[in-house]
């Protein structure tokens, strides 16, 4: 997760000044920070043996839609940056004749978007299973008499 954030922050956002002023960057930072405040507060208190029920619910329930929104914001930030990478040619490399190989960075970003959404599906599934294990299903079953 840290590597993913570093790639998005420094490679996509920091390298293109035009993207830095977009609203999606502010939304992305807000979602990242909100996720971290909930997750790290819960983890810190759990390490000390303190389990506060509302915080536990926030950690295992609210983090699922927040993570989904942060992935969508990240994908939109990458999508917004694609035209700038195409026009400026930033990070695109053409190797000399013996290799005759070139790396077109917008294609790398498009492949990253695909991997991002595939990984999101696995992580969401994992978050749901953690939630179910920690909080239960939430359904109240009636006993038969």
Give the secondary structure arrangement, pairings included.
Elements: H1 2-13, H2 17-20, H3 23-47, H4 53-88, E1 93-94, E2 102-103, H5 105-135
Antiparallel strand pairs: 1-2
Helix pairs in contact: 3-4, 4-5
Describe the structure.
The chain is mainly α and 145 residues long. The protein has one domain. Helix content is 74%, strand content 3%. The chain is built from five helices and two strands, in the order ααααββα. The protein has a two-stranded antiparallel sheet. Keywords: Endoplasmic reticulum, Fatty acid biosynthesis, Fatty acid metabolism, Lipid biosynthesis, Lipid metabolism, Lyase, Membrane, Transmembrane, Transmembrane helix. One of its GO terms (biological process) is very long-chain fatty acid biosynthetic process.
Sheet/helix structural class: mainly alpha
Intertermini distance: 50 Å
Output the number of helix runs.
5
Largest sheet: 2 strands, antiparallel
What's the overall geometry?
A: elongated
> What kind of oligomer do you see?
single chain
The parts where pLDDT drops under 50 for at least 5 residues are: none
Count the E strands.
2
Order of helices and strands: HHHHEEH
Mean pLDDT metric = 89
Helix content: over 70%
Strand order of the largest sheet: 1-2
Strand content: under 5%
What's the Cα radius of gyration? 20 Å
How many separate structural domains? Answer: 1
């Amino acid at each position: 997760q840290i590597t993913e954030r570093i790639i998005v922050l420094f490679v996509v956002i920091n390298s293109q000044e035009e993207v830095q002023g977009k609203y999606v960057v502010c939304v992305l930072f807000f979602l990242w920070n909100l996720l971290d405040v909930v997750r790290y507060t819960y983890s810190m208190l759990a390490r000390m043996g303190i389990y506060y029920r509302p915080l536990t619910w926030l950690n295992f329930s609210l983090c699922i839609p927040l993570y989904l929104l942060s992935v969508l914001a990240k994908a939109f930030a990458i999508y917004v940056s694609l035209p700038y990478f195409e026009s400026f040619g930033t990070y695109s490399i053409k190797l000399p004749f013996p290799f005759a190989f070139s790396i077109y960075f917008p294609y790398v970003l498009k492949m990253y978007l695909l991997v991002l959404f595939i990984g999101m599906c696995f992580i969401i599934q994992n978050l749901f299973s953690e939630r179910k294990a920690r909080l239960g299903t939430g359904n109240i079953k009636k006993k038969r008499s």
